[in-house]
């Protein structure tokens, strides 16, 4: 499973990239607004830090506008993945961009049928929003399972399932169990994945006993 981080905070991305465990980055207009920084500058900085796909979202609603914006964003770096919304205009842009060899992340997916259309349009990634489905009392995780089953039914669909709107470590665990190809995770949740109280307690006990031996390793 690949891990992307879902943020436009360059300092956070730099730290996480240093672990060698980061496979990509996703941003969206809300995260760019939160950063308070220039969109294209931020994307350029992130692309220099992370070799994997960096999703940059278009702001136009019509296909031609999306394609014009995509051309600007693709010129920033070769690892930019163009993020388009799951609308008919977005699907048409996805089809055109994927034919040109661009990576495309189709976002704001809330149904299996939407995911099927994105795959047919040649999306590199489909982003089902788990947390936002949970927010309205639906089962975000079930959607991941449905998409996995549908994509596996058809060998010609190569789109990767990118579990998005992840809010907890349990969302990550269940996405992995469901066979999502990628999870895009907020930095805080990503850091929490390595933590367990028994790990900390066990380490303290081991190191206390090690000290008693009076030995050194190096
Ligand atoms: O990757 C999409 C994600 O940023 C949306 O997350 O928490 O705003 O639903 P959230």
Describe the model.
The protein is an alpha/beta fold. The chain has one domain (2-213): Aldolase class I (TIM Barrel), CATH 3.20.20. The chain contains 11 helices and 8 strands. Strand 1, helix 1 (10-17) and strand 2 form a beta-alpha-beta unit. The chain is globular. The model has no long low-confidence stretch (mean pLDDT 97).
Q: How is this fold's topology laid out?
A:
Elements: E1 2-6, H1 10-17, E2 24-26, H2 29-35, H3 39-49, E3 54-57, H4 63-74, E4 80-85, H5 88-99, E5 103-109, H6 112-120, E6 125-128, H7 130-135, H8 140-153, E7 160-163, H9 169-178, E8 182-185, H10 187-192, H11 197-213
Parallel strand pairs: 1-2, 1-8, 2-3, 3-4, 4-5, 5-6, 6-7, 7-8
Helix pairs in contact: 1-3, 4-5, 6-8, 8-9
The structure holds SN-glycerol-3-phosphate (G3P).
The CATH superfamily title? Aldolase class I
What is the CATH third-level topology name?
A: TIM Barrel
Strand content is: 15-25%
SSE arrangement, N to C? EHEHHEHEHEHEHHEHEHH
CATH class: Alpha Beta
Rg on CA atoms, Å: 19 Å
- Shape descriptor reads globular
- Amino-to-carboxy terminus distance: 35 Å
Strand count, sense and barrel status of the largest sheet are: 8 strands, parallel, barrel
- Low-pLDDT segments, ≥5 res: none
What is the architecture at the second tier of CATH? Alpha-Beta Barrel
**Main sheet: strand order:** 1-2-3-4-5-6-7-8
Number of helices: 11
Helix content: 40-55%
Number of strands: 8
What structural class do you assign from the helix and strand content? alpha/beta
Taken together, the total number of domains comes to: 1
Ligand inventory reads:
SN-glycerol-3-phosphate
Residue-averaged pLDDT, rounded? 97
């Amino acid at each position: 499973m690949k891990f992307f981080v879902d943020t436009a905070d360059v300092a956070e991305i730099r730290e996480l990239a240093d672990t060698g465990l980061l496979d990509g980055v996703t941003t969206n207009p809300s995260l760019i607004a939160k950063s308070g920084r220039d969109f294209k500058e931020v994307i350029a900085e992130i692309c220099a830090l992370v070799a994997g796909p960096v999703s940059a979202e278009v702001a136009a609603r019509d296909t031609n506008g999306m394609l014009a914006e995509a051309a600007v964003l693709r010129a920033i770096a070769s690892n930019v993945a163009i993020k388009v919304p799951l609308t008919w205009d977005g699907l048409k842009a996805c089809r055109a961009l994927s034919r040109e060899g661009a990576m495309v992340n189709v976002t704001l997916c809330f149904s299996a049928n939407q995911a099927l259309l994105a795959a047919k349009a040649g999306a590199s990634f489909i982003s089902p929003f788990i947390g936002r489905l949970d927010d309205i009392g639906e089962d975000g995780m079930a959607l991941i399972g449905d998409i996995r089953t549908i994509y596996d039914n058809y060998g010609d669909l190569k789109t990767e399932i990118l579990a998005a709107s992840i809010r907890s470590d349990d969302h990550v665990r269940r996405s992995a169990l469901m066979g999502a190809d990628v999870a895009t995770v907020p930095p805080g949740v990503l850091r929490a994945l390595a933590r367990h109280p028994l790990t900390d307690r066990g380490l303290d006990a081991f190191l206390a006993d090690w000290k008693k031996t009076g030995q050194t390793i190096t």
